[in-house]
Amino acid sequence: MGACASSSRGRSNQGKNLKSSKVAAVPFTPATQTVAAAAASEEKSSFKWRIDGFSTLLDKQEGWTNSGYFEIKGIKWYLQLNLKDRKRGDKRDYVSLMLELSKTSDLKSEIVVEASFKLLIYDQAYGKHREHEFSHHFQTEGSRRSGVSCMIPVETLKEESSGFIVGDSCVFGVELISLATAKANHSSEMVHVQKTNGFSAREAYTWVIDDFLALKGRCYSPEFEIGGRKWYLIMYPSGIDDSGEFLSLYLNMAKPDASLQRSGALVELSLSIKDQVTSNRYTRTGRCQFVATEGDGWGWAKFMEVKSVKDRYLVKGSCLIEADVAIVGSSKME
């Protein structure tokens, strides 16, 4: 997720096409738990992470568990595991894996690691491993995470006939498919900015959150459509770092249809939290480039102090978040 070039201001609510819905929040806690884990590299192109006493981890509350650091091709990585992740629209718990480039990797900031990997949950009884292949461009000061992969429902993992849990241990891993390093991407992106009439009318979507104080971790709004694209908001009520100091807020583009796969959108964006008594609002604005990939998001890690939200913007525990979006241009990679 990025952070738009931004400004903050108060304003009234006039002259906009409004949409709204109540909260459909999926909580997610980006916390680190401690487990007894044995991790070993079979070779320099793979890593296996065996977790013993796995039933204890299954009983823990939601959150991420990190593996120890390991090296592949001289670069340090670690795996992250979540046993209570959710897919939007699915109430089941999922096992999610994510690969992250370590901050301690000795790479210059302008270097991009172009890598393809395979994430695995090992079937220890029958060899029918669960696999997920992905490609990602990693940077030490940019995108260090591969993105979350919901690999398998937890209920499937726990089935005795599955072979994933044997002797109260479970094994996860990663295998390298290909890896190359290069300087930061210098490919050109042609941006066409529309004139005053705009590419799409400015529209606003209001997210009604009924019980803000009960929310934990990452929360999603329902999807909404503006300018022919589908979007959703992500909010971290205690901050993306879970410090409890700032509320974090982002606008994300949902997965586009096939006709939009090769295009992007230049968006004028305002995210606001509304004062339900005076109709004033706290707003941050920016102009952001969204490419047509699922999960592409922009916003602010330090959108507003949590204390200010609680003191000024809650009415009987509820608050209103508004996204004001206008697509003012389009882009194409060449």
Automatic annotation (TrEMBL):
It holds the Pfam family MATH_2. Residues 1-20 have a biased composition (Polar residues). Residues 1-21 are annotated as: Disordered. Signal peptide: none annotated. Coiled coil: none annotated. InterPro entries: MATH/TRAF_dom, TRAF-like. Residues 44-176, 202-325 form the MATH domain. It comes from the Eukaryota. This is MATH domain-containing protein.
